[in-house]
Fold Metal-dependent hydrolase.
Amino acid sequence: MDSVTHTLFGLALYGAVDKKHMKKTQKRAYLLTAVGASQIPDIDVISQLWDSEGLYQMWHRGITHSIFLTPLWAALFILLSFLLFKVKDAKLFFLGWLAVIIHNTSDLFNAWGTGYLEPFSNIRITFGTIPIIDFVFWVILGTAFVASKFNKVKSPSYFKLAWIFIALHVIIQSVQGWMVYNQYEDDYEQIALSAGFIPWTYTVIAKNDSEVKIFQDNLFIERKLQAELTSAENADLNVLFSEKPEAKTLTEWSPFVVIVDDGDRLGVYDPRFYRNGQSFLFEYIDKTQ
């Protein structure tokens, strides 16, 4: 998910906590933990500073998003709460732990995926059933924030209800995505799913041999062919990988790639992010130089 959504998740966790009898320092510790732990896995962006081998694509949402690392992140905020606010509260650990788990797990549902099982598995897990920016989340949480302003006593209940609606949205969206995905399994060797910004709509990328087709689909309309692509499967990628390590990383990171070898360029791109004739995840070398 995007950073705004993760921040809203943190604020919603904080909002769901009953703070009637808390001191100001306790409230600050809870706010820091809820919001900070909701963001901390994305600290991996700093790895760009020392990436000299084109591995950032794998590092981003990699080990920092591992489910096995979540207790360590929670423990970090226990320490910060004590150092900054002199607050000792075991509940902070579980709040922080829940916040990190929500961050890492929610990122599984969009096309980018995460290294959820690292370091025991390097598989990038992605379901592709929720868009990276999901405005349904924003509407649900925004409604809870507004309602809480009118009735502060019931504020925690509003946020807990919001979390129920979020869970229902994820379940409904994912079940529909799974059903759409299954409709392609008999006809294509490789399939990838990417949720659209409009609820219940999906982009399906299907590949047979060198042919890649991109469809717009949902359960209530006929699928629409958006693009047909040809992958140069017989191209020798050794030179590309040698000169552009990012290309090898992208090939390992993506469910599958489209290979371009048109005489001018040799490269690979992720068709899940194909828009208006190009993919923003495209690594190539210029063969004319």
About this structure: The mean pLDDT is 93. The CA atoms of residues 111 and 196 lie 10 Å apart. Strands lie at 190-195, 202-208, 211-218, 221-230, 258-261, 265-269, 274-275, 278-279, 282-286. The longest strand covers residues 221-230.
